[in-house]
Amino acid sequence: MKIGIVNDSPLAVASLRKIIEQTPGLEVMWTASDGEEAVAKCLAQRPDLLLMDLIMPRLDGVGATRRIMRDTPCPILIVTGSVSGNVALVFEAMGAGAIDVVTTPAFSDPDMANQLVNKIRAVSSLSEPAVSFELPKISDPRNDDPPCVVIGSSAGGPAALAEIFSRLPRDFAGAIVVAQHVDERFSKELAEWLAGTSKLPVKLAEAGDSLTAGQIYISDGGRHLVFSTPRMLDYRSTPLLNYQPSVDVLFDSARKHATHELLGILLTGMGRDGSQGLKRLRDAGHRTIAQDEASSAIYGMPRAAAMIGAAAEILPLAKISSRIVAWTQAQRSAP
Questions:
Q1: Phi, psi at residue 51, to the nearest 5°?
Q2: Across the beta sheet with 175-180, what order do the strands follow?
Q3: Annotated active-site positions, please?
Q4: Quick check: 126 and 243 in contact, CB under 8 A?
Q5: Distance separating alpha carbons of residues 238 and 222, to the nearest angstrom
Q6: What is the chain's Cα-based Rg?
Q7: Furthest-apart CA atoms within the chain: distance in Å
Q8: Strands 224-229 and 232-236
Q9: What's residue 107's pLDDT?
Q10: Which residues, given as ranges, of the chain have pLDDT below 70?
Q11: Is 148-333 the same fold as 2-127?
Q12: Domain 148-333 class?
């Protein structure tokens, strides 16, 4: 894998270069000291992966990510010295198409170096085949179960989710469960950031949470968010995948426990996670939507869904929230 390093700190560049050069299968293609230089170098030599800093002169990591994803799309991993101090920028970059974020490793910290290498390998695994996660179905029908929307997203997802949530009304009658690819160390920050965009309450899902109308549940990273009953959430550590939570795992568990119709939505993201799960939802009679190419930061996951006929509708991002509201109202009025 050929990697580009974009960072204005010589110490950070040296540390990243050392880690990459000591890892079999990885090599440094080039380095850039700011976003403008990175944009130019991507046009000349597009790498397999970019390690992108956030705070840089001339053009920062958010602006560089936006331009690179527009002109020469390639996987981008945000590598920054202070994630907690730049939460808004982190999720803005992810909204522009960056896949994930990791703290800049130091020379003398092998654990941080391993975290970076594992993250690089996880990014490269996003094109692996989707999985089916089999759970025993438990019949537990309840007339007061809220209409349930299950959403999967990856690169570009935070901004897409924020736009959808910002358009939902305060009296929204459904429950929303989201599997978003994000590092487990930043899941809480993602939920808090999304809460600031929404009229509805947004929380990090916890094992044992019971679905409540008008509540949005965001997956914790590092584990699979699943349904353990038609209205209760839980976490699973299997199947062991490089990216957890898996959208396919969430969709499959929702389908197996559903006692009412579900609405499954697959948003922007790299790879194919969620496409097979969305197809199985549609085949089981549930309503399904995929984001369209024009409004997707990365048209990978929705494209994979469209190619296999998994989506009953392919919609621009701006129309998805109104479709969610209309579907939820129809479910509430159904006998």
A1: -100, 110
A2: 202-204, 216-218, 175-180, 148-153, 262-266, 287-291, 313-315
A3: 154, 181, 273
A4: yes
A5: 11
A6: 20
A7: 65
A8: antiparallel
A9: 66
A10: 83-84, 107, 125-144, 334-335
A11: yes
A12: alpha beta
Report whether 205 contacts 177 (CB < 8 A). yes
Tokens standing for residue 268: 């922007």
The answer to whether 298 and 270 have CB atoms below 8 angstroms apart is: yes
What sections of 102-155 are H helices per DSSP?
Answer: 110-124
Domain boundaries, the chain: 2-127, 148-333
What is the rounded distance in angstroms from the CA atom of residue 156 to the CA atom of residue 180?
10
Check: CB of residue 235 under 8 Å from CB of residue 224: yes
Query: pLDDT value at position 243?
Result: 81
Residues whose CB is less than 8 angstroms from the CB of residue 201 and which lie 6 or more positions away in sequence, other chains included: 195, 214, 215, 216
In CATH, what number does 2-127 get?
3.40.50.2300
What stretches of 138-192 adopt beta strand conformation (E)? 148-153, 175-180
Sign of the dihedral through C-alpha 259, 279, 121, 190: negative
Token readout for 137 is 């179905």
Angle at 185 between CA 179 and CA 189, to 5 degrees: 70
